[in-house]
């Protein structure tokens, strides 16, 4: 990077221009007196030295002394003086004093009332003692305590239904195992029998029982994680292929006594080409082969080549799109100014053959990594256009993956669909997730500029949760920011979250950007978000996601 000329020519200022170090003063000699008669104030040479004034300076006034009290401590100092004067008792306070050079330090100030012959208070004497070292240590201790209370204790995030590692954390452990030694990865698909039904409570109970049974069966060094709606994975790190096969068969046999189970076992070697997500995809594909062949376990002795895995997954996406295995849900968004539902967020769901609509996180994560997500996003965009055409005036927010936003094909497709369905562009807002890995920032900016030119809106989802931080606010012409629900769900009881949300709102207001708060579940949170200046809210209090029914989305 070229260094600006001003910086090249810059030279350090002479040492004499820097503030002089403050020398320790004689604590006993630092004092001041104030006498009401004549409004007179006198202070010692030691106090003058403390605040950086000339020791022989004349014309001192209480206004000058007050200017040396830190502005945040003015009320505290005035209250202590009033208390000493009215109660006729000695009062001790700790305040910050300002030096003439702009620095500040901490002092204990003992305020003693001075009484006249008749017992009436005629003035105040203050004795000053520098306690900067003590107060600095106290503040540091308080800071460390706050850090301990606010920093998450562990990165391990247990799945709420099973208590096992989440897919993301489990994948981290697989990557760590790949760096250490060889082993194997087992993914188990667990499904209730025909007589058990497919009600959600039955499925949750089945997963919980399965997790507990596996914990009893596996060795302590083997890790468990929930990697899909009905999938539990076992990591056999530093295990031979023969031992992994035997343990996988034992586990499946134990589980088959209570449910239908299919397994896929993939071997890996140290520093293998396939990473954690590739191995998970291979193991998931293997259990599907087990189910299709009606056998308990499929073995994959070597990870699938990257090109083959990509082609296989694209075929799966195409099959899911062709057989209506994707569906849309919608969640209402409330505008706080009017107290009306003015827009809906469209949410993709994957139809699971045994458990109905499921979160698409697993599918989208794999599709995005294997460059197979564009067709999914295009499917969502087209159905959003159909809904907007059927209900003029209905505003919809459409989520896009990072890869699709950076794909040059997307801009042209959006233009074609707007023309085909004759949709008012103002009905559509495209959401970019802050945590998404945008493949091509130049193409993403081209897409953002073009959809804005067409009249569509642009939103940044999960703001505050990802690596992009505030950078995207300057890279893209964002109209709307969705504050990550992690900072909203405990907002009322968490002062740190309140500070963060307030700061995010203020930043967005300065940039001319509207804000939406996610995960709003109670009235107290809603009231606080109003006070903080948030523009829109969504969450279970406003409405849960529900299947999209054309012509029936609530607008009021």
Automatic annotation (TrEMBL):
- Name of the protein this chain belongs to: EAL domain-containing protein
Q: Which PROSITE patterns match?
A: EAL (PS50883), PAC (PS50113)
Region feature Disordered, mapped onto this chain: 1-24
* CDD domains reported for this sequence: EAL, PAS
Q: What Pfam families would the database entry show?
A: EAL, PAS_3
Which SMART domains does the UniProt record give? Answer: EAL, GGDEF, PAC
Q: Where is the PAC domain?
A: 91-143
Boundaries of each EAL domain copy? Answer: 310-556
Species of origin: Actinoplanes flavus
Q: Where along the chain is composition biased (Pro residues)?
A: 12-22
